[in-house]
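Practice set, problem 2.
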Amino acid sequence: MQDLAVDPDLAWTEVPRLIRSGQPLDEPWESLFGPLRARSNGEPMVVGQIGQSLDGRIATLSGHSRYINGPEGIAHLHRLRALVDAVVVGAGTVRVDDPQLTVRHVTGPNPVRVVIDPNGTLPATSRAFIDDGVHRILITRQRTCPRVSADIETVALPDTAGRIAPAAILDAVGERGLRRVLIEGGAHTVSCFLSAGCLDRLHVVVAPMILGSGKAGLDLPPIADMTGALRVPVRTHALGPDILFDCDLSAQRSGR
């Protein structure tokens, strides 16, 4: 297991530029972020991220989640944002956490912010919609009238029972030239992309704590027995006291 807590800023400032140009990275960054280079077939490379406790919880029953992961785990999330072209969150995460989705804890460019709000219910004052010079995209379903300003690009997609297919969202993102995509949250959104076979990687950052109850990090369709479990290659890295599980889902993604 590689320990990334040692000199975490070593040569980081060049990593966002090098990953976009396809050049090799110095260690420890190549082992961790090298797999996030764009896919050769032109489709977006998609990584999901979850921060959770040892018992798989991302929040208490009341919804409190700040902060499960330590400073190194939070810095890792911000590095992921700096390396991707777009960060995707669902309406529930925006409504509960009101995230900024910036890279304020590390050096690098802020990604395009993509918010999935099928019913167009989010307030225009949400921080994800703030006009700070970063392009913002609202994914909603057809025949919905969102309450956001005209300078936010609105993309209306077909839906089934009020839900928009993850593959359709990735197609829309890819059509806009966004080649590396981070599915950041919440748990429902990450779970939907995972169960749809739309993730290349999944980064699970586990904190050394036990909540005992609360909201689960993943909620996938039930399986009948263990033969239906998703078994994938995993590499682990130490992020201070947190442990990162880097799950390789590329075989599942290529089969969709």
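Problem 2, part (b): a different protein.
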Amino acid sequence: MIFDRALGYADATAAEACNVGDRLDLDIAGPKALGMRAVWVSTRVIPPGFAPPPDATIPSLQRLPEVLQPWLG
């Protein structure tokens, strides 16, 4: 899986990483399956029954710093 490979290249654990993307099926479900945090960039509502949910949803990348800041502590 691409996320496993990225963690290896970064020499990071899933708990240390976060993925940001606009596709629930790829950008959220994949990282969450590995134990990573995931941020969904969207103004839509999560479809009923979608699991696992993203850790955060933001309308644009401009809001990303405020989501990441508490996780960096």
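Answer key, part (b): The longest helix spans residues 24-34. The chain has a mean pLDDT of 95.
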